[in-house]
Design brief:
This protein has 132 residues and is mainly beta. The protein is built from one helix and eight strands, in the order E-H-E-E-E-E-E-E-E.
């Protein structure tokens, strides 16, 4: 499953900046991952998965911090999680069962189609780096 595109979303940048100085009214925590079956190229202007309805699914992710400024998310998806069993996009987000209230990043991948009984583990790492 090769990554095709990825973007840190503008809505996520805004929320992270607010978290840094405690100005976020939601007390945001990016602890969820969402997947969908739409492969539209990732863009900073997007706010969530491009797919809707039965074409998307959200779930809490296992979240860890790794030395050298890395946040990591991991979740294992199953055959029954998406209609058509096709995975093309993901977001790291603050989510409920049906939608993300804010997404930090979105990535698209080559199509991954699961067969009955198959699972797909997705691991995402976001590294904080000094800008120029």
């Amino acid at each position: 499953m090769a990554k095709v595109s990825s973007a840190i979303l503008n809505v996520g940048k805004t929320d992270v900046a607010k978290i840094l100085n405690n100005a976020s009214p939601t007390g945001s925590h990016y602890i969820a991952m969402g997947v969908g079956n739409i492969g539209t190229t990732a863009s900073a202007a997007q706010t969530d998965l491009v797919g809707t309805g039965t074409n998307v699914k959200y779930s809490n992710a296992t979240c860890t911090y790794s030395a050298s400024y890395k946040a990591k998310w991991q979740h294992t998806w199953s055959y029954t999680d998406l209609s058509g069993h096709i995975f093309k996009e993901l977001v790291i987000c603050i989510a409920t069962n049906s939608h993300a209230s804010a997404s930090l990043l979105r990535a698209t991948y080559n199509t991954e189609t699961l067969g009955s009984g198959d699972t797909l583990q997705l691991n995402v790492t976001c590294e904080v780096q000094q800008g120029s």
